[in-house]
Amino acid sequence: NGNHISLLPLINNSSDIVVTHLLLASLQIWPEEPNNNPAPAGLTVWTGGWNTPIGAKNLTQFWNDKSAIQAKGIEVIGSLLGSYTGLQTANDSSWDYMYGALRDGLRKYKFDGIDLDIEDANPTRNPDSITLDTTIKLIDALRQDFGPDFLITLAPVASCLSPSCSSASCISGFDYKELEKRRGKDIAFYNAQFYNGFGDAESPKCYEGIVKNGFAAEKVIMGVPSSPYSTSCNGWIPWGKLEKTVRALKREFGGKFGGVFGWEYFDSEPGGQTAPWEWA
């Protein structure tokens, strides 16, 4: 609904809360074109159903919270969802504008990294979807501008990393094994989506299949819905069953198990919107 939900309980409410990274979702880049209305040009944040300019006053409290949790060692990553068709079809001047808006926003608001959430980008359905080469171009530009310590992650659905996870196709439109081969040194980890029919965390099977397919366990984060009431994803796994899966993966991979992320913070159970930090 656009109301601010504080992040500060993640660092103030319990020493049992262990959070390593927080993703701000989602960022989008809008080109300078008159048909964008009502979307503003430049870098925006998707808030409560609309695109808000990243410098809008109603985001001030979020930026304050962000700085506070970063000071406690939690790294904050901006998640870019959408805008990829514009980057793919951009000529030199429009690429410079769109990439520049992204770069400048990440720099001004002191993000620790970026998550490339490339969805609905299948060349068989959309000839203007982002290609592997353009994805690499984007990664290279980010690495050049932000240096070796800046985190670059991607958020593929689980079936992109292993066909054993689901019969559903990879919706990114390119081969992640080839991406890992060509730019794996620049990719910190994969926030793999184990939900919406692209994989699940009911058992270790999907995660194990991804590792058998050549991806290092320490680079694969198992993403699960954090609420059974989510309107943006399905595939909630009851706590008892999820715990069994995580414990099994911890036994199998030990300290190399990449970890778990929850989508998304504001309504995470068991606390819901009044205490979403309880999930962590």
From TrEMBL:
Annotated catalysed reactions: Random endo-hydrolysis of N-acetyl-beta-D-glucosaminide (1->4)-beta-linkages in chitin and chitodextrins
Superkingdom of source: Eukaryota
Annotated GO biological process: chitin catabolic process; polysaccharide catabolic process
Record domain GH18: where: 1-280
Alphabetized GO MF terms: endochitinase activity
Keywords: Carbohydrate metabolism, Chitin degradation, Glycosidase, Hydrolase, Polysaccharide degradation
UniProt-recorded name of the protein: Glycoside hydrolase family 18 protein
Organism: Aulographum hederae CBS 113979
